[in-house]
Amino acid sequence: MIGRLNHVAIVVPDLEAASATYRATLGANVSAAVDLPEHGVTTVFVELPNTKIELLHPLGEGSPIAKFLSQNASGGIHHICYEVDDILAARDKLKAEGLRVLGDGEPKIGAHGKPVLFLHPKDLFGTLVELEQA
Ligand SMILES: CC[C@@H](C(=O)O)C(=O)SCCNC(=O)CCNC(=O)[C@H](O)C(C)(C)COP(=O)(O)OP(=O)(O)OC[C@H]1O[C@@H](n2cnc3c(N)ncnc32)[C@H](O)[C@@H]1OP(=O)(O)O
Ligand SMILES: [Co+2]
């Protein structure tokens, strides 16, 4: 059911500094920062030949990544994102298998303009998983 690895997300305490490190030190193509208020995050994407790195920083009150950053002050890997061909079919199958879909269970439009969902990290070996419609 799961397909390509779309991105690995890293929460960072300073988005500008992290962008500069990926661009200047690691020599990667790094996007501009984009605010996504409906997700409570600001994102930067690092383009790699085979996948992407999503750099994340909390945005606004009640950001879902605020607690993670408070517990990992220098940053850390936050989630991985797999592509699926049919996000509603994937959601329904995973719910039937007993996995918890976060939020209200309805996909939101994610950073790439496509529907996304999140699965509880305790149900997938301590890893927060995002599914994105391919
Ligand atoms: C930009 C849009 C989109 C995209 O298109 O790419 C994004 O990526 S948005 C990214 C941000 N959005 C989200 O993360 C939404 C889903 N997340 C959540 O609903 C919450 O963050 C959470 C996963 C339910 C965690 O909630 P929180 O309040 O921070 O913590 P809890 O205390 O409830 O955590 C319970 C339990 O899980 C452990 N945990 C928390 N976060 C992670 C994580 N990222 N990876 C692994 N484990 C995690 C936490 O430590 C707790 O464990 P115990 O202490 O053992 O109970
Ligand atoms: Co993501």
Let me know the largest β-sheet. 9 strands, mixed
Distance between the termini: 11 Å
Tally of alpha and pi helices: 3
Question: Taking all residues together, what is the mean pLDDT?
Answer: 98
EC number: 5.1.99.1
Domain VOC: 4-134
Protein name: methylmalonyl-CoA epimerase
GO biological process, one term: L-methylmalonyl-CoA metabolic process
Describe this protein's structure.
There is one protein chain. Helices cover 20% and strands 38% of the residues. It has 134 residues and is of the alpha+beta class. The protein has one domain: Roll (2,3-Dihydroxybiphenyl 1,2-Dioxygenase, domain 1), CATH 3.10.180.10. Strands 1, 2, 3, 4, 5, 6, 7, 8 and 9 form a nine-stranded mixed beta sheet that branches. Strand 8 and strand 9 (128-133) form a beta hairpin. It is globular, with a radius of gyration of 15 Å. The mean pLDDT is 98. The structure holds ligand LP2KCY5N and cobalt (II) ion. Ligand LP2KCY5N is lined by residues 9, 36, 39, 41, 43, 54, 56, 64-65, 67-68, 78-79, 81, 102, 110-111, 116, 118, 121-122, 126-128, 130. Residues 7, 9, 54, 79, 81, 130 line the site of cobalt (II) ion.
Layout of secondary structure:
Layout lengths: L1 E10 L3 H11 L3 E2 L3 E3 L4 E7 L4 E7 L7 H6 L4 E9 L2 H10 L11 E2 L5 E5 L8 E6 L1
Parallel strand pairs: 1-5, 6-9
Antiparallel strand pairs: 1-6, 2-4, 3-4, 4-5, 7-8, 8-9
This protein binds ligand LP2KCY5N and cobalt (II) ion.
Ligand LP2KCY5N binds next to strand 4, strand 5, helix 2, strand 6 and strand 8.
